[in-house]
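Below is a filled-in request sheet from our internal design queue. Each sheet records the structural input a requester submitted and the sequence that came back. We keep these sheets so that new team members can see what a complete request looks like end to end.

REQUESTER: design group, bay 2
PRIORITY: normal
MODE: inverse folding
CHAIN LENGTH: 167
BACKBONE (tokenized):
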């Protein structure tokens, strides 16, 4: 039976998040019976659901008197954990295992998705507007440059024509 993380603290088992969801990465800490008995190496044996699907042994890193490992939650079934040391001694919570409920990632509520979507759309519009403004400004600049060049050429032609008439 899956429980809240606080129920296993007395046994030296903690998970860094109160609610687990698919895709979460959590820190599993173990300072239980095996650690207290002087184990140098501890593995977290994990699996999902009643049949322990996707079983894995995860080596834990010893930090002072606590063993830690990062676990990525891959399924929406309950996460089951037992611990094993290098001497093949187990801590499986007196055959009950350490089980944690895993929920599917909550979808956005309507108000969250609307409020989250609006700034993005506004931001895209302003970016698009800015790029249009930038294009318009550069187009205007190019047009001004061309017009100025044309006027300059026309003025030169007129000056040349006037000097030819005087001569």
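RETURNED SEQUENCE:
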């Amino acid at each position: 039976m899956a429980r809240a993380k606080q129920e296993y603290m007395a046994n030296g088992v903690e998970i860094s998040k109160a609610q687990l969801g698919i895709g979460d990465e959590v820190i599993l800490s173990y300072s239980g019976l095996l650690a207290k008995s002087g184990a140098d190496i501890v593995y977290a044996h994990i699996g999902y659901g009643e049949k322990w699907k996707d079983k894995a042994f995860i080596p834990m890193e010893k930090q002072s008197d606590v063993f830690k490992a990062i676990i990525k939650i891959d399924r929406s079934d309950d996460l089951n954990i037992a611990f094993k040391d290098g001497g093949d001694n187990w801590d499986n919570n007196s055959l009950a295992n350490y089980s944690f409920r895993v929920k599917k990632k909550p979808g956005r509520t309507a108000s969250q998705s609307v409020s989250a979507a609006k700034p993005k759309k506004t931001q895209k519009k302003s970016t698009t507007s800015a790029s249009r403004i930038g294009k318009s400004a550069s187009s205007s600049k190019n047009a001004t440059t061309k017009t100025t060049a044309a006027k300059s050429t026309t003025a030169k032609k007129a000056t040349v024509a006037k000097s030819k008439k005087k001569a």
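SHEET NOTES:
- The chain has two domains: 5-103, 111-162.
- Residues 71 and 108 are 25 Å apart (CA to CA).
FILED BY: M.R.
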